[in-house]
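User: Quick sanity check before I run a bigger batch. Here is a single chain. Can you write out its predicted 3D structure?
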Amino acid sequence: MREQLAHYGGITVMIPAALMIAVWLWYSAPQAFKWWIITVASTYSIVAFSKLLFKGWGVSFQTLDIAVLSGHAMNTCLMVTVALSLIARQFNYAWRWPATLVGLSLTVGFSAYCVAPYIHPLNEALAGALLGAVAAVAFLWRIDVVRVNVSPSLIGGGLVFLSLCALVPKYNAETLLNHVAVTVSGAQQAHQEPAWRTVSRHIKAE
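Assistant: Done. Predicted structure follows.
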């Protein structure tokens, strides 16, 4: 059950979530829309960069037990937290930060118990969650001075759209990242798992 839930943190659901939030902001607060684009582009770039470094050159952090940052965890912490906060604002402006805390609690828990250990080891999931959480709080703090009034019809339409996206087969960008990493680095094939993790697993098995 937890493994199936983890896949909802992938791009099949979370890119539509990012687009949904972008549409809300485009029609309600253009300045906030610009900051949202910057936030999403920055966090996605950091995750992609970590994966290209590892897949192409094998760069990882053994002491932290981290090879890459979890995109599933980052996506969930960023999208769900921001969406909950924006929706809460429409009911009561004072609820925006309590809703943020609820979103962070739920999504960090999701990262720790669903994303890990099925898609990423715990430390990678938590690292991705930390990135998403910091990005969400930074974005919400940045737009705190802006009145974001999203119409109920936009909220409802966005949630219906997101629900439909959640029904389609789940995909990820690993194949594309593998291809880009090999092309850029010149490696014969993309790294899939750090050698030190394989050795550690073998030692524990013995």
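Residues 19 and 158 are 9 Å apart (CA to CA).

User: Great, the batch can go ahead then.
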